[in-house]
Amino acid sequence: MKNLTTLIVVSTCILYVTCKKETPKNILTKQECYDLKKDSMYLVNNILGHWKWVTEYRYDQITGEKIFTTPQTAGYNKYISFDNTNKCCYYENTTLVGNYLYKIARLYEYTQFYLDSNLVLGYLTPNNIYDGFNYLKPCNDTLVIDQTAQNDAGSIITYIRN
Fold this sequence. Notes:
Blueprint: H1 2-19, H2 40-47, E1 49-59, E2 66-69, H3 71-74, E3 78-82, E4 87-92, E5 95-106, H4 108-111, E6 119-124, E7 130-139, E8 142-146, E9 155-161
């Protein structure tokens, strides 16, 4: 009986160690990322510059399948840049595909629900009218843009400072 108990304990330990999944290097956990309740100037200062896409994680809207995409699997690169005039530009390879005004604000400015205190990246029309938002998680030289904030069909995109 003692040998059986020992065998079960050892087997469980081996199984735990071999089955433990590691977080991919380009996917950041919540603990490693920026606290979204901090000062907006900290967030603004940490997103300024040019960023290169490294991963995108999303669910297929029809099949529900998890899709993990990289520049290598997609066959192209994506870039995003933020400047201090509140302009945000999206590029695929070298082609400009989107040009937006942005504002770092508390989520409640968009939802009107006072408990929504996280800082978000709000997109504005040229007339300064709200046009959507995403959660931002800058972490040193990594930026995670969570586009699932408004619906579950969005992507979680990871960029590195370029």
